[in-house]
Each structure stands twice: as C-alpha cells, then as structure tokens.
Predict the 3D structure of the following.
Amino acid sequence: MRIARWTIGPVTQAGFECLSLSIASFCLHHPDAQIVVCYNCPLNNLENIVARFPHATLVNQAQHLEADIPPMGVAWKLYPTRLCPEDHELCIDNDIVFVKPLEEIERFYEGNHTLLLEGANRNYGQFAQHVPQPYCINSGVYGMPPHFRLQKYFDFYVKDEWKLNAFGRHAANKTFDEQGLVALALLSNPKFDIISAETLTNCEKQLIWGRALHFISLNRNQFHRPFRIFKSTLRKMFL
C-alpha cells in the first residue's frame, strides 16, 4: 500500500489552507495513495479538510503527550515513527504544494529505498555530527520503504529529550533534532534517493517555481507573501 502522511498542529489559518492544497495537489498527481492526517490541534480546525477528503484517515496524536520523550515542535511528525511499517510510507509537511508529478515519489513507491529532500543548510541539532558530509537535508518530505525501522534510530539517538536548538526565524520549530534524526536514519539505508532543491523549491522568501513548492515559515506567518502570490496566480488550479 502507498501511504501519504501529513502532520498538522496549531498553525495559522494559512497553514490549514495550505494543508488542504497540499493533499489535493498530491492526490491529483499520485491518486493511488492512502491519505493519513496526524493532528495535534483541536479537531474542529480540520472540519473543512475532513469534509473535502472524506476518505482520509485521521490520527489523534494526543496519546503521545504521555510518552517517555514527549513530542516538541516539529518533532511531532515522528509520533509515531511509523503508521504502516509493512507499506511504503511518505511523510509530507503541510506547507508543500505539488504543481506537477514528482518522478522521485513514483520511484519511491515502486522501489525499496528511502527518499529525502535536499535542503539549503545542515540544520541537524544535536545529531549534526552523525549526518554524513556533504548532505544538506530538509525533512519536509521523507519516505520509508516497507520494514524500514525508524524507531530503532529514535531509541538509540534520542536519549532523554528533544533539545531546543532552532532559533531566530526558525524558533517556532523549537528543535532541529527531528531533521537530524531523519537525515542520519534515512541516509544510513543502503539505497536512498534525494529530491533536488530545484525540483521542490524553497519558497520561504520568494515564489520560486518548481515541480513542488515549499512555503517554509507559513505555519507561523499569516501574511506569507510567496503563498499569497501563489494563491492569486493559481486560485483555480486545484478546485
């Protein structure tokens, strides 16, 4: 089975709007995937999304608040580390919109390798020394093939707690440890593929067209200029 998984928390209204666009655009190009939305926000924030995607599975992450190592910031997306360990499981940030099909995603679903996304920097928190050079990885999209055990890396590397090490404009993320754990774990697989930054572009500061667009910082910025420009130019694209 092909799993496509999103995680959503208490983000801006624009963040919820982009989640709906993210799911719709992904399904347009990859229609065979089973959609799963993990949430750590009030369910009523997702009413419009639930109505639009009635076949999506919802997973309440509240149970993980009592975990030995509680989730924090962006690390919520690792709770649980796998939903469907026997299947191909793709994890996608809510602030990513797919303009065209991604060949890398199709190869992932058909193959037996991990899938990662190229980033601009090596922001890996306390796990930076464990991520091989020269890879710059962003955890906005990552894929795990059947039987890939991300939990074993979680158990070995995350000893006590997630560290607060995301600062400045990324402070709302709280930690880069999650990104470091994803990078070191998935790069350790004998076979992996990386989506290039030219294919899935960073649209934090300006709208840069690619086959998919990553509106970084949208979840904490209601007036995200690149996202507003995107909506104005493609308002009817995914209706």
The first helix runs from residue 13 to 29.
